[in-house]
TrEMBL record:
Stated name of the protein: C-4 methylsterol oxidase
Main location: membrane
Organism of provenance: Colletotrichum plurivorum
Transmembrane segments: 53-71, 91-110
InterPro entries, sorted: Fatty_acid_hydroxylase (IPR006694), Sterol_Desaturase_Related (IPR050307)
Amino acid sequence: MATNSSALHSTASWSNDAGPELNYFEKLWVAWYAYMQNDVLATGIMTFAMHETIYFGRCLVWAIVDLIPWFQKYKIQQDKAASSKEQWRCFALVLLSHFTVELPEIWLFHPIATYFSMSTSVPFPSAAKILFQVTIFFIIEDAWHYWTHRALHASPFLYRTIHKTHHRYSTPFGLTALYASPFEVMILGAGTVGAPLVWAAVTKDLHILTMYVWIAARLLQAVDAHSGYDFPWSLHYFLPVWAGAEHHDVHHERFVGNYASSFRWWDYLMGTESDFMKVKAQKKRSKQE
């Protein structure tokens, strides 16, 4: 299979000479790289645009939910809420972080992906392969996140200098998912980016599209975990090992325990899980007293 530049200048060559005809999205992919004539720039712009659209788009959904009274009965910390001023402050810092910390990393992503043998060619991998690899990345990142996050809490120095910024808001809302110091963004982000890169280096079988699906899924998970809402249809009710907003909200409220990002098993195995229902019952008893 051909790679980037040589393959991405002619859609017709793929459909006529190189096997299966390309679908609509594969043709758009080819046209984008051919139009840009610069693979680093093409990948960088596409990656940053995807990142910002997914993150702020999902945050906007939760901001709208906050304005609808019907949803408030599902709010986890109903007696607390961040003011508009606090939310705008959070937005400003997150946006600054995206341009000063994440954008330079995204700009370097294409040469790094190429170095680790990540494919950018067409046709795309199957949906089954993408799903399998993204699941593996979730598991790897969750382990990285648990242990690094726990370490940031275990050391007073690390907590004070790196992690304290993220805990400015004890009542999280969507935007707080990436509200963090530059060092924390890089440390915890290493699990998100590192898992696919290690996979690509070892297996030589990873498409950059799978990386995009993974980053999109991870962003959605992070924003939802900080949403502050627990619905009857939330995923953890159907997938008990999933650590949803109720799991992470307790961490923000109590500042300890529930260190994992996506799954509950590390917290359960290591004895660091704070049960949401027990915390809820304790709050109810305190109010009655």
